[in-house]
Amino acid sequence: MNEGLPVVVIGAGPVGLAAAAELVERGLPTLVLERGEGAGAAVSEWGHVRLFSMWRDLVDPAAEKLLAATDWTRPAADGYPTGAEWVESYLAPLAAALGERVRFGTEVTGVSRLGRDRIVDADRDGRPFTVRVRTTAGEERLLARAVIDASGTWGTPNPVGGDGLPALGEADAAERISHRVPDTADPAVRARHAGRTTAVVGRGHSALTALVALAALAEQAPGTRAVWVLRRGEVGDAFGGGAADQLVERGALGQRAEAAVAAGHIEVVTGFRTARVRPEGDRLVLVDDGGRTLEPVDEVVALTGFRPDLSFLSEIRLGLDTTLQAPVELAPLIDPNVHSCGTVYPHGVAELSHPEEGFFLAGMKSYGRAPTFLALTGFEQVRSIAAHLAGDHEAAARVELTLPETGVCGGAGLFDDPDVAEADAGGCCGPAVAEEPPAAAAGVGGGLAVSPLPLLSAAPAAPADDGCHGGRSVRTTEATEPDRVS
Ligand SMILES: Cc1cc2nc3c(=O)[nH]c(=O)nc-3n(C[C@H](O)[C@H](O)[C@H](O)COP(=O)(O)OP(=O)(O)OC[C@H]3O[C@@H](n4cnc5c(N)ncnc54)[C@H](O)[C@@H]3O)c2cc1C
Question: Cα(18) to centroid of ligand 1, in Å?
């Protein structure tokens, strides 16, 4: 009954479009549903940010073959595009090459089995999927033989609140809380930060990028200040692996952020778990769960990571890890409580399957709340899934993932006070970041807290096979996060 139905891919981001290219290469009917009006709608929203991956890691092999049949010019392999360039020079041409297989302005609002809710067992696997969509023309129901959900996590950022719930007053202060890296070249965004004080909450690469941008603005616009708010008791390895990072630009970003802090452009507050956002005139005051308050700020930039939107999958039988909300087989490999380096063995359909046969999470969304995703990982995921759906089980199992090392491999790092959380610091990878103890503990007593930074010296990354992986052979190591909660 499902013969001839398309494989529906949710999302025309880098991984959804790669999935489509892989499916087309396998001769499978394919339909991509994208809620935005163009390819890479989420990437476009951070289009001003330069990626730390080179072009060679940003083009899916099957997509490249599809594009080779057009007048597409492959960007130089060793260049670093911005998000906007990734869209313009690759994602948009790829969507054009896929033609009518990609439908824009089409939001998926629900996925289920035809005539079956999640409770019914009878003939479940034999039923096609129903995919509910919303367009400007109204609602529609589409049928699919399989569904690959590559809808990312961009639309569901984590809140400022340190316990994962919005801080009290956060919703009311939404106008002055942004979840995007500020584009200081945009006059409207620049006006929000120039000569003003901005709190940057979070410790991932987006937070570092924001800090570097605000520090550069401070050089041009006197009075510009940034306060870096971290949940953890110390800065630890937040600057990444520096020169030891195999992604050169990612390592350099951490070094630039570290230099900006050292130059005095950024004040650092550690051990601060925001519990309340309180208005004070035109400004906002962050209060932590111990009652400490920060000096009022004009703007808050919350770069605290993302979480998957599972709301439209309520009728699908997902097998998700209770902690990460990632597929159960994948979660242990990417758990930031264990791996800051996130050592991962090659993974594909086996790790991405759910009790619901024929349904897959891929791309950024497959990592749930883990902050370590790279597009390269997603390309391998969808290659394996497409091979599986085409019945080529040998190719589906033959996943070859080559990911760069971060130069930081030290487990979760110190979440709480340095002296009480030592057991957490090693992870299975073993501690690799040597830190001198901070000269003074963080503290905020009415004014801005500035906790002196520990000096970092990154030890060499852990060897690829560190015996952390249940006896499975380890061929590569995963990279650290684009975003990571504080
Ligand atoms: C600032 C920043 C910098 C980054 N830098 C790098 C880097 O250097 N290298 C790297 O490998 N990765 C980087 N990443 C991670 C990057 O986001 C991913 O590699 C890539 O964008 C993930 O692709 P994706 O297709 O899984 O998700 P997305 O890019 O988020 O695409 C998902 C798509 O699904 C659509 N969608 C969402 N919900 C629905 C719905 N209900 N119905 C229909 N469509 C929907 C969205 O509009 C979007 O177009 C970075 C991320 C950020 C935020």
Answer: 12
